[in-house]
Amino acid sequence: MRTLFLPAFLCVLGGSLQAAEPPNIVFIMADDLGYGELGCYGQEKIKTPHIDRLAADGMRFTQAYAGAAVCQPSRAVLMTGLHTGHAAVRTNDLKQLLLLEDVTVAELLKQRGYATGGFGKWGLGYVGTTGQPNRQGFDEWFGQYLQVHAHFYYPYWVRHNDEKYLLPGNEGGRRGQYVQDELHAKAMDFIRRHADGPFFAYLPYIIPHVEMVVPDEWEAPYRGQFPKVAVMDPRPGYIGSEDGFATLPGMISRLDAYVGEVRSLLDKLGIADNTIVIFTSDNGGQNGGKDKGWTKMTDFFQGNGPLRGYKGTFYEGGIRVPFIAHWPGRTAVGSVSDHICGFQDVLPTLCEVAGIGVPAVTDGISIVPTLTGNGTQKTHEGMFWESRRGKGMARAARKGRWKAVQPRLDAAVELYDLSEDISETTNVADAHADIIREMTAFMDSCHEPEREYPAAPFRPVLGDFVR
């Protein structure tokens, strides 16, 4: 078995962009925002002018992939630059978390002198574990450590580093403090406090993930435009929406406004020209729910565009995501790239942006040549995803035009030609036995056994958090 990790000081220099004053980095990640839910990706019913402007000012990627089809492992891939065949976290499981030997992009940037702050959903370890964000390179964290806590928009408390941060407006089940607004306010404050730079502001915001709820002023403009359809959550304690077809666009519009407010602040502080802003989503649009309410909602808005599948599947709708980058003076205005990349590429990319070394062991490849138009862009031999489901495992791979999906290890490998069939409608496995063998061998080579995790110090109590 190969060694997965090296200490951060054992780095291979990639100093082509090293500079005395490295740029600030703002990385904004939506939660369950589908590939087709933004105007710049073809959305017609939901208005996203600020994110569309970000794409018009920078570069929009058409073939960018999340680290996984669900939130927890996707974030692990983003933080460590290792795909789910190698990463510490490979599925939504509270027992899986980052370990001390893991090297995160926040740790590497901190060593370069960056102030590092995270505001939103972490999902890679909670208080008292090795995965706590303050033990993984973050100077400051405000939000939810557990992904299940981030399902709720009116909790009684969130975390600010080691401490509980009370939201008294929500005491006793009241809805006085929309938690996403609180997350955004803290992120804006972090940027103000560190305007002298350099800083890494990681904004893994929690919308438009269910539960379906947004302050009335954001939902109201969409009421009456679409059929009134209730999207109710069958799980105890969750808030549903009597008019989900207005709530979802209201949530996305609120997210869009946050992006605009961040960019306006950068301009006001006079640091926009020395800040790279990246926007993406952690996986595809939502499905499921009682009577398939979430699925109906995603389908109505064509939330995953022409792509098959939803969050939780390895079809394109579950893992292909919007990805937009604006680096003033570096990215060509209004550019579009079909370069195939993924969350594992974020760590080496941000290392090169900051002018620091890239860990010798990584599954990622810097996309700086694509962003800047300078140099030769290296490409992946292939992209890989896996996820444990009970005692079984699902996996998928992409190599060039070919996409393989295996829902279970005892199931046949499906094969799709994405160059002609972006919607994965036709399984062509029977006609390409040689490609199936190649893809299967590649997937086999990408998997290493899961690591051993220390016993959790305690089990979080969900009810204490929610109400």
Question: How is this structure best described in words?
Answer:
With 467 residues, the chain is α/β, with parallel strands linked by helices. It has two domains: 20-374, Alkaline Phosphatase, subunit A (3-Layer(aba) Sandwich); 390-450, Arylsulfatase, C-terminal domain (2-Layer Sandwich), CATH 3.30.1120. It has helices spanning 49-57, 71-80, 105-111, 179-193, 216-219, 244-269, 293-300, 316-319, 346-354, 368-372, 433-446, 462-466; strands at residues 11-12, 24-30, 59-61, 64-65, 115-121, 140-144, 157-160, 163-166, 199-204, 275-281, 323-326, 335-337, 341-342, 358-359, 383-389, 392-399, 402-406, 414-417. The strands form four sheets. The chain has a ten-stranded mixed beta sheet with strand order 8-7-6-5-9-2-10-11-3-12, with helices on both faces. Strands 15-16-17-18 form a four-stranded antiparallel beta sheet, with helices on one face. Strand 15 (383-389) and strand 16 (392-399) form a beta hairpin. It is globular.
Short account of what is shown:
With 467 residues, this protein is an alpha/beta fold.
Question: What is the H/E order?
Answer: EEHEEHHEEEEHEHHEHHEEEHEHEEEEHH
Helices, by number, come to 12
Average pLDDT taken over every residue = 93
Q: What is the CATH topology classification name of the largest domain? A: Alkaline Phosphatase, subunit A
Poorly predicted regions are 1-19
Whole-number total of structural domains: 2
What overall form do the CA principal axes indicate?
globular
Helix content: 10-25%
The first-level CATH class name of the largest domain: Alpha Beta
Q: Supply the CATH superfamily name of the largest domain.
A: Alkaline Phosphatase, subunit A
CATH architecture designation of the largest domain: 3-Layer(aba) Sandwich
